[in-house]
Amino acid sequence: MNNYSISQYGKPLDKSKYTIDEYTKTFSSDENDLVLDFHNLDNCTFKTGSCCTFKAGSCCTFKAGSYCTFKAGSYCTFNTGSNCTFDTGSDCTFDTWSYCTFKAGSDCTFKTWSNCTFKTGNDCTFKTGNDCVVVRRDIYEVIELTENKKIKLNGYGIKGFTDMEDKEELTLKQVCKELGRDIKIIK
């Protein structure tokens, strides 16, 4: 894990202000205003303060404060504060606060507070606060999201969404019970 750069205010960050676990590929710092370029590295974990800028590969995990900017690949997980900007690939999971802007691929999951804007592909799932809007990239469609209502965008090229709040997942035992049938599990 030697192909990266870490700076703060245009200068390399003093090594006493961060740790890198080479085995787990985990970067940790309590510092704000960092610029982290790990764009050639996958499977990394980042734990930072606010006002940071990240470039990373795929399958990364981010725990950061507010006012951060992310450029990352697919299959990433983000847990951040407010006013963050994301430009990612597909299959990412976002748990953020308010006033965030997202440009993401398909099959992403978003859990946010209010006043967020999403530019995404198909099959994404949303549960947001108030005043959020989705712009579909695969077809031209704008969807105003309803506060605390979980939805999933329809498949590629199909306008609209499915209300996920009405969908209850049932186990095999629950289905059999509702049908008045006994279930036997054979090992």
Estimate the mean pLDDT confidence. 90
Helices and strands, in N-to-C order? EEEEEEEEEEEEEEEEEEEEH
Shape: globular
Quick one: how many beta strands?
A: 20
Helical content stands at under 10%
Q: Strands of the biggest beta sheet: in what spatial order?
A: 2-1-5-7-9-11-13-15-17-18
Count of domain modules: 1
Using only CA atoms, what is the Rg?
20 Å
**Structural class label:** mainly beta
Proportion of residues in extended strands: 35-45%
Separation, N- and C-terminal Cα atoms: 45 Å
- Major sheet description: 10 strands, mixed
Tally of helical segments: 1
The poorly predicted ranges are none
Descriptive labels:
187 residues; mainly beta; 10-stranded mixed β-sheet; 1 helix
Describe the structure.
- This protein is mostly beta strands and 187 residues long.
- Helices cover 4% and strands 36% of the residues.
- The protein has one domain.
- The protein contains one helix and 20 strands.
- It has a ten-stranded mixed sheet with strand order 2-1-5-7-9-11-13-15-17-18, with no helix packed on it. The chain has a ten-stranded mixed sheet with strand order 3-4-6-8-10-12-14-16-19-20, with no helix packed on it.
- Strand 17 (132-136) and strand 18 form a beta hairpin.
- The radius of gyration is 20 Å and the shape is globular.
- The model has no long low-confidence stretch (mean pLDDT 90).
